[in-house]
Design brief:
Mean pLDDT: 96
Strand content: 25-35%
CATH topology: UDP-N-acetylmuramoyl-L-alanine:D-glutamate ligase
Shape: globular
Strand order of the largest sheet: 5-4-1-8-9-10-11-12-13
Radius of gyration: 18 Å
Number of domains: 1
CATH architecture: 3-Layer(aba) Sandwich
CATH superfamily: Ribokinase
Largest sheet: 9 strands, mixed
Number of strands: 13
Low-confidence stretches: none
CATH class: Alpha Beta
Structural class: alpha/beta
Length: 298
C-alpha cells in the first residue's frame, strides 16, 4: 500500500442540483442536494484512500462546527487527519455550489483569510515513510514545505497548480511534477496558447509538467516532446471535484511507480467515473471499479 501525503485545502461543500445556473435574484428549487466534504487536498486524500492507498492530509481549519464536519467526514473515508491543524478562533472554509443539468458547476467559496497561513509547524511533522507528496497552491506556504520535504526524501513531489499559480513560486521550483489546470497554466504563462504555455512551464521549472483540460484530455511532455492522453467519454452528471480526485489518483499512481503516461490514463478514468455521479467527491470510484472501467474502454 503506497502512502501519500496531501497538503492544502479542506472545506465543506453544500451542493444543489438545478436545471440551470441561477442568473436572477430569485428563489430556486433544487432537484437534489448534498452536504459533503470538499477542497483540493481533502478530495485528493479521499481518492487515494478509495483507490487503495494510505492517505494522510495536512490542512488548516478552524475549531468550529464546520471544522468538525470536515474531519469526521475525512476520517470516515479512512484519511489520517493527524496533521489537520484546528486553529482556535478561526473559521473553516465552506462553499455553496450549484450543478446544472450538463454537470457544470458554479461555486461561491468562503475562506477565512485571517486563518494563519503559517506552515512552520508542518515541516517537522511530515513523516519520513512516504511514497509521494501532493500539494495544492491554495496554501502556498504549505506547498513550499511539502515540495521541499518530497525533494529531501527523494520521492515525487506533485503540485496541483491552480490560479494564482505564481503565489506558490517556491513550491514551483521544488516540485518534481506540476499538474496545471488549463486556467492555471494560462495564469502561469500569461498566454492563451496552451501548447506554448506548457513548453514554457517545462523550460522554466525543469519539472515534469502536464495540463488537464476536462473533456479535452491531458497534454504533457514525454522524453522532451509534446504528448497527449485523451479523456474517457462519459455521460456527465456532475464535474464537481473531478480535478481534485484526478490529482489524488495520479499522485497515488506515481507513488506506486507507474510511468507518467499510465498514471495519467488511470487518473483520467477516476475523474471520468466521478463525473457520472452527483455529489462531488462522494462519486469517487474505488480501485476495482476504476480498473474494470479501463479494461472495458480498451
Amino acid at each position: 500500500m503506497s502512502r501519500i501525503l496531501t497538503v492544502g485545502v479542506a472545506v465543506i461543500d453544500i451542493v444543489m442540483s438545478v436545471d440551470e445556473l441561477p442568473r436572477q435574484p430569485e428563489k430556486y428549487r433544487a432537484r437534489d442536494a448534498a452536504i459533503i466534504g470538499g477542497g483540493c487536498a481533502a478530495n485528493a486524500a479521499v481518492a487515494v484512500a478509495r483507490l487503495g492507498g494510505e492517505a494522510l492530509l495536512a490542512a488548516r481549519i478552524g475549531r468550529d462546527p464546520i471544522g468538525g464536519m470536515i474531519v469526521s467526514g475525512l476520517e470516515a473515508e479512512g484519511v489520517d487527519c493527524a496533521l489537520v491543524r484546528r486553529l482556535e478562533g478561526g473559521r473553516s472554509s465552506f462553499s455553496s455550489i450549484y450543478v446544472d443539468a450538463n454537470g457544470e458547476r458554479q461555486i461561491v467559496n468562503f475562506r477565512d483569510m485571517a486563518l494563519s497561513f503559517d506552515a512552520s509547524w508542518l515541516e517537522p511533522a511530515i513523516p519520513d515513510a512516504l511514497d509521494a507528496i501532493l500539494a495544492d497552491t491554495r496554501w502556498p506556504q504549505g506547498a513550499a514545505v511539502a515540495m521541499t520535504a518530497a525533494r529531501a526524501r527523494g520521492i515525487p513531489g506533485i503540485l496541483d497548480a491552480e490560479a494564482p499559480v505564481r503565489e506558490a513560486a517556491e513550491a514551483l521550483q521544488k516540485a518534481s511534477h506540476i499538474a496545471f489546470s488549463a486556467q492555471g497554466l494560462r495564469d502561469f504563462a500569461g498566454t492563451e496558447d496552451l501548447a506554448a504555455a506548457l513548453r514554457s512551464a517545462h523550460e522554466e521549472t525543469g519539472a515534469w509538467v502536464c495540463c488537464t483540460n476536462g473533456s479535452e484530455g491531458v497534454d504533457f511532455f514525454e522524453a522532451g516532446e509534446p504528448a497527449h492522453v485523451p479523456a474517457f467519454a462519459v455521460d456527465v452528471v456532475d464535474t464537481l471535484g473531478a480535478g481534485d480526485v484526478w490529482h489524488g489518483a495520479i499522485a497515488l499512481a506515481v507513488g506506486e511507480g507507474q510511468p507518467e503516461r499510465d498514471a495519467i490514463r488511470f487518473a483520467n478514468a477516476v475523474a471520468a467515473l466521478k463525473c457520472t455521479r452527483f455529489g462531488g467527491r462522494a462519486g469517487t470510484p474505488d480501485r476495482a471499479e476504476t480498473e474494470a472501467f479501463m479494461r472495458r474502454a480498451g
